[in-house]
Amino acid sequence: MAAISPFFLLFLIPIVPLSILAILALIVRPRPIKIPIKSRHVFITGGSSGIGLALAHRAAAEGARVSILARSAGKLEEAKKEIQLATGVEVATFSADVRDYDAVSKAIDESGPIDVLIVNQGVFTAKELVKHSPEDVKFTIDVNLVGSFNVIKAALPAMKARKDRGPASISLVSSQAGQVGVYGYAAYSASKFGLQGLAQALQQEVIADDIHVTLIFPPDTNTPGFEEEQKSRPEVTAIIAASSGSMETEEVARKAMDGIKAGKFTVSCNFEGFLLSLATTGMSPQRSFWLAFLEVITAGPIRLIALFFQWDWYKAIEKWSKTKTK
């Protein structure tokens, strides 16, 4: 039998990755899309502070007609003045609790047809599950998950009925705690993990209407809510969270808006988040065949990195537990 030439083997080496790329280029769905922002109606829940307010600033600065919804009428008025002072744009404000479907539906009807919906409201309390009251858990899930259903359900009929307005977008602001469970975040992680299933199913339901879903995974972000949460979070939660660091709201808003405009399904906000998205991509849609290729070839190494993080976290928990039993 003739020996196989080393040059032939070298020729074969690039064939496998190129073949994978070619297959992925054919099968990735949905197809790439661009979502325009200028001169379009952007509706943001939780828009009176934190990431929502930063997103409202950015949308207004990019020439959008902006509406923001939150519970506090006072905070909404402050946000409206702040945005107008910074951008010269007067935003519309709506006071409603996302847990109240009728109130949300009324606000959305009054605001007019929406082109870009950003579902951003969220509450969280870092506390071991055994210390959570049933009311705490219900409140977290009702605001973060059920509230998201309410907002989308209220907005969807008009978004589906729009004609000749270009591609539309529905974005859900989750959390890195919606990709991996974290000590002290049982209720919060459950509410944010639920957004993943909602987003995946919703994208299949609305793709025929040229509506594109984006799921955003911020890390700890320096918002008023985060500052309050830090005062009472368990010690182990603080140790684990320190491995990822935190970001400023403006930077998270920039990453989020860029992802929305690029039509991405998954938006990570920092390098750790990007690795986390690779490790947890599962059945998530992927528009970019290059990123799909990266997900395929890094599946093993990324899983190893994920196991290393889990080892580090559990080691911290074990160390903390021993100090508590002394």
Automatic annotation (TrEMBL):
It catalyses: sphinganine + NADP(+) = 3-oxosphinganine + NADPH + H(+). Belongs to the short-chain dehydrogenases/reductases (SDR) family. It is found in: Endoplasmic reticulum. It is an enzyme of class 1 (oxidoreductase). GO terms for molecular function: 3-dehydrosphinganine reductase activity; nucleotide binding. Pathway: Sphingolipid metabolism; Lipid metabolism; sphingolipid metabolism. It comes from the Eukaryota. Keywords: Endoplasmic reticulum, Lipid metabolism, Membrane, NADP, Nucleotide-binding, Oxidoreductase, Sphingolipid metabolism, Transmembrane, Transmembrane helix. SMART domains: PKS_KR (SM00822). PROSITE patterns: ADH_SHORT. Residues 40-210 form the Ketoreductase domain. The lineage of its organism: Eukaryota, Viridiplantae, Streptophyta, Embryophyta, Tracheophyta. GO terms for biological process: 3-keto-sphinganine metabolic process; sphingolipid biosynthetic process. This is 3-dehydrosphinganine reductase. Its EC number is 1.1.1.102. InterPro entries: KDSR-like (IPR045022), KR_dom (IPR057326), Sc_DH/Rdtase_CS (IPR020904), SDR_fam (IPR002347). The chain crosses the membrane at residues 6-28. GO terms for cellular component: endoplasmic reticulum membrane.
